[in-house]
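Hey, I was hoping to borrow your eyes for a little while. No rush at all, and the record is pasted right below.
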Amino acid sequence: MTDADTLLVERLPRPRRSLWRPKVPIAVVISLVFLAVAVLCVCAPFIAPHDPSFINPAESFRGPSAEHLLGTDQLGRDIVSRIIAGARTAVLAPLLLAAGTVLISTALAVLAGYAGGRVDGVIGRVNDVLYSIPSLTVAIVVVGVTGGGFALSICVLMIFALPANVRLLRAAVLERVHLPYIEAAKTLGVSTPRILVTQLVPAISPLIVTSFFLQVTFAIVELSSLSFLGLGVSPGSPDWGRMLAENRSALSSNVWATAGPGLCLVALAVSANLIGDWLYTKYEQAGRSR
């Protein structure tokens, strides 16, 4: 290329680059903001404008106003205040259920996939039995018969949420257990617990993260379903699922008494799902670049 050609190329207009390219999708940003607001409601319930348990029959089924932004329910309780107070069970309970499910299922899946043989067979058979039983139906029967509270609901749902996670994570372990770096660690005499903790678990961490957020989504739906049926949380407690059941007859009087907690449940479940998918994608891209 001659000097004239070089000068000509340098003078050609270059394509403009966008001044702002978001690395995080807008939907994920909105989901993170909503989760941050939900966590704020959990950590600071005092931001509620009214007492969520204050009963005022004279103000029942009032529409949105300056004093009550989303109106009131059948007992005159402020809807916004009850939504803020209900975030405690809507956020903490699914997180607790998902964390326990993922922790136990990861341990069982790694043990079954690495040990194989009888250990894998026993875990697999128990897993098949639990997988064939509908979890929500069992939770309704157990909690309804025993009169157990929210803690019992979480324990029952956690037990029956294990099979799907164990199957998924066990398959991921089986793909990696015979790879050269695992065989090399065995040859070098690395202890089994160290191989499991430092090699296999980090290798399947993208699936673990995805499973956690997926379980959060399922937990939100299942726990709110129990609350809608009057199980789990005590009567009168500010809970989004119970608010749906209590105010469904007020759709013509104040639609926000039902739409408010319903939209919050949908937004919370969708946000958890979107963030889980995004984190899994980021993990996969980081793994490919190594």
About this structure: The longest helix spans residues 79-115. Residues 15-21 have pLDDT under 50 and may be disordered. The chain has eleven helices and no strands.
